[in-house]
Each structure stands twice: as structure tokens, then as C-alpha cells.
Write a structure and sequence with these properties.
This protein has 27 helices and 18 strands. It is of the alpha+beta class. It has a 5-stranded mixed sheet. Bound molecules: protoporphyrin IX containing FE.
Length: 656
């Protein structure tokens, strides 16, 4: 079977450099072209026909096709006499759904690969052969090549390509994929082709005549201001519990409001509505201003988190082997070994600090996987280094003067030393015949394209900074909850035993675990490491919920705030791993469970993190009998640059 028109339109719009397809096409244009595409498919399947004034249902039999059947069912159920324009408008309302289904199909067919939310790459097969695999084993030439040939040569296009050209022309798609001069060159040809298809002509007319509904109301004047104290504004509430403050103001003021802390002013976006906007709002937001000084202090020009736009998309794709689950693929045993070695050094019956223990283990795991070296000797300096930079340059919680304290200066020096060591250990001759690690991939990209990734941007410590304060903290929280709950612990141990009894698990074995996985999901919901994303600057002004947000504003996006809203997670303060069962699936509600962020900077390490967390809990509980110290100890949590759990535990006995 050929691709459906909506799929081909998506592929025609796909921009290989950026990895997305709606970069500059207005949402209503995308919706109308997809609506037209669905109606054209229904016409070619002899389900509908048109006469000058009407759309006529010919056959209501479903096609067993989730892209087309919903519109066919709507047409079949409708009793009025409607024209094509009406059905373009009705179907365009489902534009986002049609787009998502078409994208999911292209991924399932192995044409696109999902890199991260909203970012796709062409599969290797398509990018090399420029052909799409189809279900019947035929290969179809890539749509852009076909359409460009039809426009720029005198070849007579295939009837399907005529339809695609009609649809693309009517909805302004060519303005997005051709330059102005190219468009002038082929304008006459497009008009000629437009006339070749009769149904196409009526669809073009309907699309051209379609007026998107006007926004519900004109932008209101002022974004509401959250009440606060004179001079300091909301500084105290923000420092004490930013998440609670945001929930309260969301209830009072809605999903957008202004907040102030001393002389810093922010526009806050919060709630599921805000998350839905951020997911697709890449062109309005920029991270550069937040990270520029942090990078400079580490001797790095630009890094993945400080970039936006095409270069950022390219860097994310190029560094797949540095920041994603690829790091641990085939190397689960190495991560287990690090943990076993650490446990071997735990004294019996002496209290051990929960967080620090997990920091040491996770640091070494990431060190071994990404840099091919354990780095626990650097643990304290690594922590001081990253935390000082975060607090000074990103969160601006402390003055720069604090960086001149002797232990901080020492930490910076040791990081320079570690960077040099990593570089020396990764000289090509030393890495010969060794499987490439994250640093090898980074250096390979630098050698291949030194202008794109110059020496000044080689962020050797990136995996350590990204993984340490995240995976370690979640492991520490989860370990506490498991030690506190004997019933749950028993279930986890049973699952771990069944897993390891088959030998060393693979990444896909680990992803199939049920109870451990649901426990990890609940821990990440209950203890989101931060209530807000790193700050964004508004690069292009935009409208949100009727308010205009001007360029240049600083945005606080409370992305994990819905985690604690009872309308999405009933009794949100309660630990309950059954929220994630297929029946309840509370996390599946749109934009409410996003512990790994969303949009352009969504965490690429999410699967790596999940694998490490699940693996660590399964391993540690299998290896030893452990208890909290004292047994009834309550968890203390400090909100700093991240959520920091504080408790102790002790080893009762080893199991082997
Ligand atoms: C439980 C563990 C983790 C959590 C909760 C987490 C969460 C996040 C979040 C919320 C963001 C988005 C930040 C923003 O938009 O401002 C992010 C970005 C990022 N994370 Fe994670 N992360 C985790 C583990 C990891 C690991 C293990 C790695 C890799 C070693 C990693 C690598 C990254 C990178 C490179 C980015 C920046 C991506 C970009 O800017 O395009 N993360 N993470």
C-alpha cells in the first residue's frame, strides 16, 4: 500500500537539517492541508465525491484506517447538505490528531525515527536510498524528489503527485520549501498542474476559501502580577517551596502570571496548558542567556543546553551516543560491577549516608560508561564544581565572590586536571581496538567538523554534570522508599531475582520490569528534581491564553507542577505506584507527567536514567539486607539547586 496523502504531506514538509516539519508553516495551514489530504484519500478510495455545491457520501464502509475513518464516520453521521469547504473546516479541527497519527505511522513504517519530542530523523534506509518502504514490499521514491522533478522538469507527474502539488499549493506549503526565486520560476508550472486534477481543483478552492477561526478573544492587556512583599516580592516563597507557590498562584491567577524576586522579574507559565505550549513553542524560547556564564566558567563556548535552532538539533543528533541509553547498551554488566564493588566496601552495621553513597556509585557508573574511567576520587570536587556554577550562574543564588573560596578554587583546578586526563586518555592511539565511548564520539565529531564543534566547545564533563545530580538523587529517594516499605521491597526483590536468574539482563530486559519501573515513575513524580525548567528568554513574542508575552522577557516554566495537582493525580501527596497501571494510566493525560522536560531540550538521557535507576535498585536489594538507620528515620528534604534527600541506612548482612 502507498503512503496516505497526510503522510506524504508531512514528509514533503520535513526539513532534514532541523529534524522537524512545521518550522515556519502556520498551524492553520498545516491543519487545512492535512484536512484536504484526508478528503482526497477518501475521494480516491471512492468513499466520497463532490459536485459543485456538495460533498456526497458514496460509501460509508470504513477502511480500517485510523487516519481516514474518523472523518468518514463524521460525514456518514451528518444529515445536512454540506459543501467541501464545510468538511475542510471540520476536518481541520482534528489537524493535530491527524498530524500525530501520520507521524506515528511514519515511525512505525521505519521511514522516520523519533529523536525526541517533535524531532525526527529519516531512517538510515530512506536517507541512503531516498526511497520509502511500503507495506507490500515495493519501494516508493521520496516525495520531495518526485515533486521537485514534476515542478522543475516537463515530465508528466503521476496522478497522486498532481494531488500532492494541488494540496501543497493551496495551503502555502511551497512557500516553506522553495525559495522566492524558485517559486517564481515554477509558478506557471504549478498552475498548469493544478488544472490537471478535477477533485483536486475543488479541494484547492475549498482550502483557499477556508478562513481559520479567529482567536477566541483579542489579547488582554496586562499579565496578572502575583502578590508579594514590597521590594523582595516573592523571594521568600520561591526559595522555601517554589512548587507550592506556583500551584497556589495557578489556582488564583491562571496559567500565566508575573512574579518578582528582588530586582528579578519573571513571567511564569504553569500547568498542562503551559506544557502543551512549550512542547511546540521552540521558536519562541531560547536558553542561551541562562547558560552562557555557566559555560564560560567551565571553559566551554556553547553546549547542548545553551543552544537552540538547527545547530542544537544537529548536536543532539550527533551526540546520541554521548547522552542516551546507547551508552549502556551491551554494558549493563559494567554498571552492575561498579555497584557490586561499592557494596563490597560498605561496613557492616555502621550508618551510611543515603545521598552521598548513591552519588559515588552513579558518578562511577557514568564515568565508566561515558569516559571509560572511574572518577570517584574526584567526587567531592565534582560536586563542589557543578553546584557552585549552578548556584552562581544559573540560579543566581549566591554572589560570584563565593567562587573565590579556597575549596571552590581547588575544585575548579581539579576539573581542569580531570579534563586534561580525559583528553590524554582519548588520544587515538590509546583508544585503538577499544569500543568507542562518549568522549570518542565527541572527539570524532570535532575532528570531522571542527567548525561546528570547535575545541572551545568540547564539553568533556557534560555526561557527569547531566547524570549525577539527577540519577543519584532519584536512586537515593527510591532506595529510601523501598527500605521504608517491606511489602513493596519484597515485590521488587522477587522481580529482581527473576531477572538476574536468567543471567546478566539486557537494556530491553530491564525495560520490561513492572513493579520496579512503576515505583521509579512514582518516585520521579513525587520528587521532581526541579519544579521549573532552566530559565528561558522569549526570543520571539507570542500569545498564550490571550496574553501577549513580549520578546526579551525571562520565563519560568513550571513543567512538573501538574505532578502535584489532584485533578490529574488524585491525592497527589500519596505514594501510589498503581497510578501507572494500564487501567489508571494517570501519567498518560496530556502534558501532566513530564519529569524529563519537554520540547526542544527534553532530556535525551531519560531512558539511560530509567535503566540505571531500575538496575541499581534491583541489584542492591538482591545483594544485601539493608535497613534505615534508625529504622523509623524520617526523610528530610532540602530544596537547593535540586531536591536533596537526607537519611542514613546500614548494611545488616550480605546475601553472598
Ligand atoms: C532521573 C534522571 C534525570 C532527570 C529527571 C532529567 C531531567 C532533565 C530535564 C527536565 C531536562 C530539561 C532541562 C530544560 O529544559 O531546561 C534535561 C535535559 C538534559 N538531560 Fe536529563 N535528566 C535525567 C538524567 C539524565 C542523564 C542520565 C543524562 C545523560 C547522561 C541526561 C542528559 C541531559 C542532557 C544532555 C540534557 C540537555 C538536553 C538539551 O538541552 O537538548 N539527563 N534532563
Amino acid at each position: 500500500m502507498n503512503l496516505r496523502f497526510p503522510e506524504e504531506i508531512i514528509l514533503l514538509l520535513y526539513n532534514e537539517d532541523r529534524g522537524d516539519f512545521t518550522h515556519s508553516l502556520a498551524p492553520h495551514s498545516l491543519h487545512t492541508v492535512l484536512a484536504g489530504a484526508v478528503l482526497m484519500d477518501l475521494a480516491l478510495e471512492n468513499r466520497i465525491d463532490t459536485d459543485p455545491g456538495h460533498l456526497i457520501l458514496v460509501d460509508a464502509t470504513p477502511l480500517a484506517d485510523d487516519l481516514l475513518d474518523p472523518t468518514l464516520a463524521d460525514i456518514a453521521q451528518d444529515t445536512g447538505a454540506r459543501d467541501l469547504g464545510y468538511w475542510v473546516a471540520q476536518t481541520a479541527k482534528q489537524g493535530d490528531e491527524i498530524r500525530d497519527k501520520a507521524l506515528a505511522r511514519l515511525v512505525n513504517r521505519g521511514i522516520l525515527e523519533a529523536e525526541s519530542e517533535g524531532i525526527f530523523s529519516l531512517s538510515r534506509l530512506v536517507s541512503r536510498s531516498r526511497r520509502y518502504p511500503t507495506i507490500d514490499g515495493q519501494r516508493v521514491e521520496e516525495v520531495r524528489l518526485r515533486i521537485m522533478r514534476a515542478l522543475f522538469t516537463d515530465e508528466i507527474p503521476d496522478p497522486r503527485d498532481i494531488v500532492i502539488i494541488c494540496l501543497a499549493d493551496a495551503s502555502g506549503v511551497f512557500k516553506n520549501i522553495l525559495s522566492q526565486s524558485e517559486l517564481s520560476e515554477v509558478q506557471d508550472r504549478i498552475e498548469l498542474i493544478d488544472k490537471m486534477d478535477l477533485i483536486g481543483q475543488s479541494v484547492i478552492r475549498a482550502i483557499r476559501e477556508y478562513e481559520p477561526p479567529a482567536p477566541a478573544s483579542a489579547p488582554r492587556k496586562e499579565i496578572p502580577q502575583a502578590p508579594g512583599l514590597p521590594l523582595i516580592g516573592n523571594a521568600i516563597g520561591m526559595k522555601r517551596d517554589l512548587g507550592s507557590l506556583l500551584v497556589k498562584q495557578y489556582r488564583n491567577l491562571g496559567p500565566i502570571f508575573r512574579i518578582k524576586a528582588f530586582n528579578r522579574r519573571f513571567v511564569v507559565l504553569v500547568g498542562a496548558e503551559a506544557n502543551a505550549f512549550v512542547k511546540r513553542g521552540g521558536k519562541y524560547l531560547r536558553t542561551l542567556e541562562t547558560w552562557i556564564d555557566y559555560n564560560k566558567a567551565g571553559g566551554v563556548g556553547r553546549s547542548i543546553i545553551s543552544m537552540d535552532g538547527p545547530d542544537h538539533i544537529r548536536l543532539r543528533k550527533e551526540l546520541t551516543n554521548m547522552y542516551t541509553h546507547h551508552l549502556i547498551e551491551g554494558r549493563v554488566g559494567d554498571a552492575v560491577h561498579v555497584l557490586q564493588q561499592d557494596i563490597a566496601g560498605w561496613p557492616q552495621d555502621k550508618p551510611l549516608p543515603g545521598l552521598y553513597t548513591w552519588q559515588r556509585i552513579v558518578l562511577d557508573q557514568i564515568g565508566v560508561l561515558a569516559l571509560s574511567m572511574p572518577v570517584h576520587d574526584y567526587l567531592d570536587d565534582i560536586m563542589i564544581y557543578f553546584q557552585s556554577k549552578m548556584k552562581t550562574y544559573v540560579m543566581r543564588q549566591q554572589p560570584r565572590l563565593m567562587l573565590y573560596r579556597p575549596h571552590v578554587r581547588r575544585a575548579f583546578k581539579r576539573m581542569e586536571e580531570l579534563t586534561q586526563r580525559i583528553l590524554a586518555d582519548h588520544e587515538p592511539e590509546k583508544r585503538r581496538n577499544k569500543p568507542p565511548d562518549a568522549i570518542d564520539h565527541l572527539l570524532e565529531l570535532h575532528r570531522r567538523d571542527p567548525q561546528f564543534l570547535p575545541e572551545t566547545d568540547l564539553d568533556m564533563l557534560g555526561p557527569l554534570s547531566a547524570g549525577l545530580d539527577t540519577v543519584a538523587n532519584i536512586c537515593a529517594f527510591m532506595f529510601y522508599e523501598l527500605l521504608k516499605r517491606p511489602d513493596l521491597r519484597e515485590q521488587v526483590i522477587a522481580e529482581a531475582d527473576a531477572l538476574f536468574d536468567q543471567g546478566m539482563p539486557t537494556v530491553s530486559d530491564l525495560r520490561k520490569l513492572d513493579v520496579i519501573h512503576r515505583t521509579a515513575m512514582e518516585i520521579i513524580r513525587l520528587y521532581p528534581l526541579a519544579p521549573v525548567m532552566s530559565l528561558r528568554t522569549v526570543a520571539n513574542s507570542f500569545e498564550f491564553e490571550g496574553y501577549k508575552v513580549p520578546a526579551g522577557e525571562t520565563l519560568l516554566i513550571g513543567f512538573t507542577v501538574p505532578h502535584r495537582m489532584p485533578e490529574y493525580f488524585p491525592k497527589p501527596e500519596r505514594f501510589d505506584i498503581d497510578r501507572y497501571t494500564a487501567e489508571r494510566a494517570e501519567h498518560r493525560q496530556h502534558g501532566v507527567y513530564v519529569p524529563f522536560g519537554l520540547g526542544a531540550h527534553r532530556c535525551p538521557g531519560n531512558r539511560l536514567a530509567e535503566v540505571l535507576i531500575v538496575l541499581n535498585m534491583a541489584t542492591v536489594l538482591r545483594e544485601a539486607e539493608l535497613v534505615l538507620h534508625p529504622p523509623d528515620c524520617e526523610l528530610k528534604i532540602k530544596q537547593s539547586y535540586a531536591l536533596l534527600p537526607n537519611y542514613k541506612f546500614r548494611l545488616v548482612r550480605r546475601h553472598r
